[in-house]
Structures are given as C-alpha cells and as structure tokens.
Amino acid sequence: MLSNLALVAAAIAAGTTSAGPSASTSPLPAAASSATVPIAAIGDAVPDNASAVSFTTRDGQLLSGSYFAPKVAKKTTAPSPAALLIHDAKRSRGDFEELASYLQKKGFAVLTMDLRGHGDSETPECCFDKSDEKGQENLWSLSARDVETAADFLLEQDGVHSSNLSIIGVGCGAALAVRRANDDENVRSVILVDPEPTAYGYNVATGVGELGGLPTLILTSKSKREAAERLQAQAHKDNDGLEFVEVQKLKTDNENPLDDSKLDTQAARWLREKVMPKK
Q1: Which one, of 270, 82, 239, 260, lies nearest residue 159 by Cα?
Q2: Are 7 and 29 in contact (CB under 8 A)?
Q3: Which domains can be identified in the chain, with CATH numbers?
C-alpha cells in the first residue's frame, strides 16, 4: 500500500492538486497513479502563502489540509517548531487562516485541516452536519485518528523539528488537542480556545489534569471565563498544586473567539516563550 505522502506525490505528478510539501519524491510504479484517490477538489480556498495537502488516516479517511511552511531567516539552520490547529465542531480549517499566517511569520510550520465530515473532508458517506447525535459523537471520537495522522504528517516535513509540536484546539476541538497531547510525547505545549468542559463524550477537565505539567494556555472569552478558571483549578488540584495551566482573557464575546483581534499575538507570544529556544 502506498504511504500517505506517496499518494500526494502521485497526485501532484498527475497534475491533480496544488504542489504541497512531501517527504517522498521517489518515482511511483506506473500503475500507482491510476489507483490514487482523486484530490483535485481540495484546497479551493487555500491562501497564497500555503499549500494544499492531503493525507489518509489509518482507517481510510482522506483529509484535506493547508500547510504553511515556516518563514525563517536565511542564516537560520535550526528546524522550525510545528503547530497543528484543530477547528471546532461544525466549523472548518478556514477559521484559522489569520492565526496560521501569523504563526507562519513568527517561524512556525503550521498545518490546518478539515476533520472527517467537515469542510473539504466531507463526503456523502461522512457528513457531520447530517449525522444524528450518536453519529456525531462517534465521528468526533474517530477524529482523534485525524489528529494523529495530521501530527505525523506535519512533523515529517522538511525543515520541521520532529519533536517540537504545539497543538491549538478551539471549542470542541480542545478535546482532540488534549487527547493528542496525552498520547504524543512530541507535544511541547497546548493552547485551548474557549474549551468545552465536555465534548461528545470526552471530559476535557480530566484530560487536562492528565497532562501532568505540560505547558497549557486557555484563551477564554468573557462568557466562558468562569468555566476556564474552574478547569484550571481542577487541573492544578489533580497535580498536587502544580501550576501549569495559564488562563488569559480575550476581549471578544463573539460566537467565534478566533475573531478576537488580539488572539493571534497572544497565542504566538506564549508559544514562542514555551517552545522556541532563547537567543
């Protein structure tokens, strides 16, 4: 079976998708490209500073993403830290264009993606909006595999540090961010934006407590500030008073917290302090 990166390479060679990053440039067997799943439709709204990419999960879901290669100084030889951004339920990777671009300018390699059943990863057989409550809970649980595949893909890119990954999750996406951080030793920090205390069967408060000291930032809008502070207090209590969760306030109280004008700078400043080496 072809690897995920090989599938992308085959599609690029066939001219079916925008050129995206790939760790594999070896030629494919003649019959391989004809068996490749078409991905020409992905990335219709990919920003000019990003590349359309695609990868397949271990259970066969084809996912669409946007890769923002890091902007680094010419004299810099050190690999760039990575940031994986996870959208909320019923949203898409398009929410992250401004944040991803800002982190890119600050030296991060950034990957956004549409989780299964969302955005460009939606199919007639897999649509989150059209699923019933049980189906949505099942899809969200299986989306942990999407995050796993995306994280592996991101850390394999040229010029990216293979063990310096930060994850940002919004709303219900915070649950997936916490799950991955607990399972992946390459995760150095986590940012949760207006995290839901529970998300489709996953207890986020318990998950944050299990992070056991991993640097964690909660960015919270006004209406969810008390819930964020309770989550923080519980995590510190679960770790014998170890204070590793920081709460910062957002000015906005909009439905989409990513609309906050200061979120980009707050997130980037905190991440740089936690994961970038001091000069």
Answers
A1: 82
A2: no
A3: 1-40 (no CATH), 42-275 (3.40.50.1820)
The answer to whether the Cα torsion of 93, 164, 172, 129 is positive or negative is positive
Write out pLDDT tens, residues 217-265. Answer: 999 999 999 999 999 999 999 999 999 999 999 988 877 899 999 999 9
Q: Where are the alpha helices (DSSP H) in the chain?
A: 4-13, 32-35, 97-105, 133-155, 173-183, 204-209, 225-238, 263-275
The whole-model pTM stands at 0.84
The half-sphere exposure of 251 on its side-chain side, counting CA atoms within 13 A, is 8
pLDDT digits (tens, 9 = 90+) for 41-76: 344 578 999 999 999 999 999 999 999 999 876 667
Per-position b or e across 153-173, b if 16+ CB within 10 A of its CB: bbbbbeebbeebbbbbbbbbb
Distance, in Å, from the CA atom of 164 to the CA atom of 7, rounded to the nearest integer, reads: 26
